Amino acid sequence: MLTIQSGKIKPVLFLLLLLPLGMLAYRFYSDGFGANPIETINRYTGDWALRILLLTLAFSPFIRITRWHNIIQYRRMVGLFAFFYVCVHLTSYIVLDQFFDFSEIIDDVFKRPFITAGFSAFILLIPLAVTSTNKMVERLQYRWIQLHRLIYLIAMLAVLHFWWMVKVDTREPMIYAAILAVLLGFRLIYYIKSKI
Amino acid sequence: MLLKTSKPTDLKESDITDQAVYKDRRKFLQKSASITALSLAPSLMLPTMASADIGFDKIIKSDFSTKDELTPQDAITSYNNFYELGLDKGDPKRNAQQLKVKPWNVLVSGECEETGEYALEDFISPGKLEERIYRLRCVEAWSMVVPWVGVELGPILKRFKPTSKAKYVEFKTILDPENLPGQKREVLEWPYREGLRIDEAMHPLTILAVGLYGKELPNQNGAPLRLVVPWKYGFKSIKSIVSITFLEEQPATSWNIAGPREYGFYSNVNPSVDHPRWSQKRERRIGEFLKRETLPFNGYADEVASLYSGMDLKEHF
Ligand code: HEM
Which CATH number belongs to the domain containing residue B154 in this structure? Predict the structure, then answer.
């Protein structure tokens, strides 16, 4: 079994997870985000929020397959990064897209199913982010595990959010849905196996 | 009747001039020289026909033009919904060469006397090209101000002598799945088709465009011949037209087939009828930061509202 010093992995992973933000900054300097910069920023941050969210769900199947248990310690950081990108995405919607027009925003949240799904995902992520400290893990114990199962629902809402947004070309959200199905399917199989 | 298409003519390097006057008047975010250079690259500006053939040298100004500030040319030619050339807004420019525009014929059929296949040049009376600066409002809630070059559709349609049964006009885009990357998959029902009521088609604001910014239309903008109906959402203004049919019944239209609840036959710009998935109250003018109010009929209500008197526009959206 491969052993890598955890002290080195963490900063590298941290920088890797910051890379999408760096690439966004780079695009700003290279083409100013094209003709519709606000749309570009919003979609770009949405894409990365979803990818990193799915990455957190990949940890446990990956560990089961590779038995590389060490890496579990990095999951929290990845999860917090997912929350971070969702926050950037939401901020770009509130500040750039709607420019603090809260009546429009509230309208969107209640009238547009794709925004309702995205917003629910965001709200549900908050308690997970808040309870991610060591102290909270210790304090909540089994309830912490239960609470963090919300991530399954959040991921499904996030994929739905994307699916309901597109006009006709569902290919991209379909790919994410397929990945999510595999990640959740894995858990289901293990769950069923553990019962027999 | 079959009329001969004009012979292909080469475009000289010197014909490709910088539209610097119009460009970059207003910048929202920093744009580098690279994209500007790209949009002017000769390979993307291949001529669809010789300028002189159809009178690009003497374009008439029009009173119908808006005084709104023009959207920069590089935005108009790099941010396109033209699914035949790809689904991403940057695809049509990248794949522009996949649209073969020479030679180009238009089939005229249905309820008219002069049916037949016509060469492109027969749609444009030499010397009659007009510049029409129109607002363009996309159903996706963004907008542009575009200096089209074209001719009024009405007089053209009349030349084909529509019969008294001609109540609607149907338009179709080229079908060429071998070359057009977007037509390899059935995202929409190909060929793309659109339609207008005959009085909408005859309205003086309705034009067939052959040019943009004083030059031939770039392929990604619907070369060589496209419809422009400025008071309707952009998808009604069908691109790269190969067929015009006069009909007694209302034709089926591509986006209406794809989403009948989301895209109506009329699709007049209307801030009080939301798209089910987003608001139509406001729009982002490309190049501006704050959204602006969307105007009924895209600001052309004085000219066209009477076409719909007595109609419930919430029902006929
Ligand atoms: C877990 C939370 C969320 C995730 C993972 C997420 C992800 C995404 C993704 C993947 C897209 C599509 C990007 C593309 O087309 O490539 C998207 C679009 C969008 N999201 Fe989110 N989102 C989340 C929450 C939210 C929230 C809370 C809001 C606002 C209240 C929001 C507003 C939007 C909007 C307006 C778009 C459409 C952008 C456009 O049409 O140009 N999202 N999001």
Answer: 3.90.420.10
